[in-house]
Each structure stands twice: as structure tokens, then as C-alpha cells.
Amino acid sequence: MSKAPARNGTNHSDRWARRIEQDTERLRTSSDPALRRNRQFITQQGADVTRSLVANLMPEDTNLLSGFIVSNDGCVYEFEYDWRRSEPDRGQLVTWRDITDSYRSRAFREPISVAVAMTKRQARTAPASQERSGRTGMAGGRLREGRQPANLNKVLLNQIVHAFNTGDTTGAPRIFSPDYVDHQKPPFIDANGPEEFVAIVNLARNSLPNLEVTIKDVIADGDKLAARLRWHSVDDHGRTVDRETIDILRFLDGLVIEHWGAESWSTNSAAANRR
After folding, report:
1. Alpha helices of the chain — where are they, by DSSP H?
2. 3-class state of residue 230 by DSSP
3. Which of 11, 105, 119, 178 sits a CA distance of 20 to 30 A from 229?
4. For the chain, what is the domain count?
5. Range in 25-34, 66-75, 140-149, 237-246 with the lowest mean pLDDT
6. CATH code, domain carrying 160
7. Contact (CB, 8 A) for 34 and 85
8. 131 phi, psi to nearest 5 deg
9. Pair (35, 159) in one structural domain
10. Phi and psi for 164 in degrees, rounded to 5?
11. What is the pLDDT of residue 205?
């Protein structure tokens, strides 16, 4: 990871372009365990790593890798990856933020702008067959050019699960519509829309210590998605809670507009059953 190009000379943008090409190639092809796992997480967010560009891939410290992804549809995402240098196979994507509308005010706006321009040039020269196949870059919960990426609903589900696992609900307004209706909303929660989701996450994490939610199955059809989720919690005394739910989400204009849910089974156990 080279230093940022010096801010002088007439070929400054060209130097940034070369840096972007180098960082992009590293993320796409490196066999390094941390970068390989980072590739997987970025793909799960809906960005096509093989057609996206990386602007300013850099280590923040010994454990955190950060950068910016410019997807093939021109969207810009900021990411931070905790690569856990001592345990690279357990690294986690800790930040994924759509900054398409705000990157021009960022400190690293110059390399991002160069990457956006490179993406536009690639789009203009893309083969007709590729254009007909449609663009699959994540749209950050918003429709672009009147088209919704086929995998956007699954991406939003991943973001919902990530919020439950981390407690980070800052992205709720980019996931849930202001008119969101939860048909399983607890009667004691007064909030609506994205604020209700924030309250639900806080409630879950306060009542279920060390909560871990995993997606077991997903079926998507049209504007709806059905998911089978596994919920696992272990408190400091070894008491565990395991439950499985079936959740149905309906989407409108790239946001979650409705939710139905049901519990399929649940178990509670004391510490090793006190054996």
C-alpha cells in the first residue's frame, strides 16, 4: 500500500489512477487471508468486486483496513474492515456506508472522484452484452436509473442482521421506509419507521447478551423476501437461548416497507443444565 501521490505536477490524476488500479488488483486477486475475507464481505453487501474500483485502500492501524469502493453503477461506499491480524479468518466488516451524495466533502474526495470518472469511462466502453445484462452494484437502499439491483433485498437483509449482531443502527434510515409497518411490533414500543427498528435492536441486545443472528435460508420473489433466522445468546453464567424465526419482508422503492414474523421454535437452557 503506497503513500498517497504528492499534490503537484500535471499528471496528479494519472498517479491516482495508477494507485487505484494497484489497490483494486490487490483486493480482487490477493491470496492474503484478510483481503480474501474482505472480498467476501464486500460481495455480500452487493458490490461486484470484479467490476468495482478501490479508492485509497489503506491500514488505519494494526487491525483496521479502510477504503472506498466505487461500484460499477457509480455508487460510492466507505468501508472499514477489522482484519484481526492475529486471526485473519475471523475478520469482520465493521462499516459499510453509502457516501455517494457526500464524498465530495470528504478528505479523500480526489481519489474517489478519479475512481468515479474511471468507472464512467468503463461503462461507456462496456460491451453491449454487459450493458444488457444490467448492473449489479449495490444501490445503498435507493433506486438509481429506475432500476433496483436483483440482489438489493438480500443486501438489506444482511444489513438488518448486521445491526442485530453489532448494535450499529446508524444505517436504519437507509434500510427502512419512514412508512415502515411491523406487524409484530411490541405494544410497548411507541416509535415508528426506522426508529422502531432501532428500538427493537436495542431491546434484543439488552435482553439477549452476546446475541448472534445467522441467516439459515432466504427465498426472494418479487417485492418480498422470506428468511429463516437463527438467534443464539449466551449470558455470563452460561445460560443460553436458541430460537429460530421466519421473517417476511416487503420492499418498496429500495426500502423495507413491511414485516411479518413468527417463531418456529425456541429453547432455553441453564448453564450446561447444571450438570
Report:
1. 12-29, 33-44, 109-125, 128-133, 152-166, 194-207
2. strand
3. 178
4. 2
5. 140-149
6. 3.10.450.50
7. yes
8. -65, -40
9. no
10. -65, -35
11. 93
